[in-house]
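User: Teach me something about this protein's shape.
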Amino acid sequence: MAKVVCYILVALWLAARGQSKYTAYFKNKALKFDKFLEPCKDYNRQHNAIDLRNVTITGNSTTFDYDAVMHRQINDVTLQLHFWRCSSREALDTCMPLTSFKCRNICEFLDSTKEFWSPAILCAKPNIACPLQKAVYRGRECSLNLNAFHFFPLGTAYWKVRFTLLNNKREILCAMIEGGIR
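Assistant: First, the predicted structure itself:
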């Protein structure tokens, strides 16, 4: 964890100076999605409020389509991301937990255009807004914003991410995503 905090401090310092040695690395690179698995293997669907359906990786593995079916109105949603770093796509036995990220009340961030997930939310029709309404949201040719990661040493590692949404401390959606920067 101390290493992650150090990376963040260095990234902020480099951002203030307007440069990063990692910016050149990203110049001709993109986030490539390889797998999207929903639900997670250990996910208990008892409190399921959202189903992701028809998730398809498109655009040379850089974009994705999805249908999000909201079964009920949801007021308070927490996002949890757990990251594992693997040496390569072929060596999944090397995956080690790296860090976790938790964002309470994601409703505060849904309208933002600056979060890494913003393009995936803004591409949905109808527009996703809080409270989340019972509806079917369709996202086409969606992506994630990699700009926030230009200051981090992501390198050629392969990544596994557990994406979880919680409502009242209960999982209402869980998916695993795999991919890398290439």
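Now, about its shape. The chain is about 15% helix and 40% strand. The CA atoms of residues 123 and 139 lie 5 Å apart. If you'd like, I can walk through any region in more detail.
User: That's plenty for now, thanks!
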